[in-house]
Design brief:
about 180 residues, alpha/beta, D-Maltodextrin-Binding Protein, domain 2, 2 domains, 5-stranded mixed β-sheet, 6 helices, about 45% helix, about 15% strand
């Protein structure tokens, strides 16, 4: 009695034989299953987490302020540990920090309002990738402050962006060359 040829059964038989041949070869098992698994685990733990940006305060005493205190709780931002003005400015022009923040208060011209807070941001062209992250964190903080019913003296907040400092100018070769060198190894 002649059996009909079944494509599915033939494919399964070939697949089973190939899989058993791989399992009988230890180096094939290591490079087919173990090696990719190790790569996934190693590269999965590198650089995990959201992007974050450092910023500096023009006056360290501003950390006691309601706005800055809440901003520091945001996982996107962290306060630079430097207190020296020259070092902070150098970090800014090299792109190590996103901006220098200063929080100033001015008496309100409107009767009944206490003070108006102005956040002044000084950034450089070298921090072009970090500055938007800091702006996002500030915008979120101000939105949360309004929603959470912040004290009335903190509600009229203005962001004042100062002119950018010149920083290190990046060119296309700065991004292409490391990639080309890395692919040659």
């Amino acid at each position: 009695m002649a059996n009909n040829y079944n494509q599915l059964r033939a494919m399964l038989a070939i697949s089973k034989a190939s899989f058993l041949a791989i399992l009988r070869n230890p180096s094939a098992v290591a490079f087919s299953f173990g090696f990719p698994l190790v790569f996934i685990l190693v590269f999965g733990f590198i650089g995990g987490g959201p992007p974050s940006v450092s910023f500096a305060l023009a006056r360290r005493a501003d950390t006691a302020n309601y706005v800055i205190r809440n901003l520091l709780q945001d996982p996107l931002v962290r306060l630079s540990s430097h207190t020296d003005t020259a070092t902070i400015r150098q970090d800014l022009t090299r792109g190590r920090i996103g901006a220098i923040l200063s929080l100033d208060s001015t008496p309100s011209a409107i009767p009944g309002m206490k003070e108006q807070y102005t956040v002044r941001l000084l950034t450089s062209s070298a921090a072009a990738d970090k500055y938007p992250i800091l702006r996002l964190a500030l915008a979120r903080e101000f939105e949360y402050a309004v929603e959470a019913g912040a004290p009335k003296q903190y509600l009229p907040i203005v962001i004042d962006e100062l002119p950018q400092l010149p920083g290190r100018a990046y060119s296309t070769i700065d991004f292409i060359l490391p990639g080309m060198l890395g692919s040659r190894c």
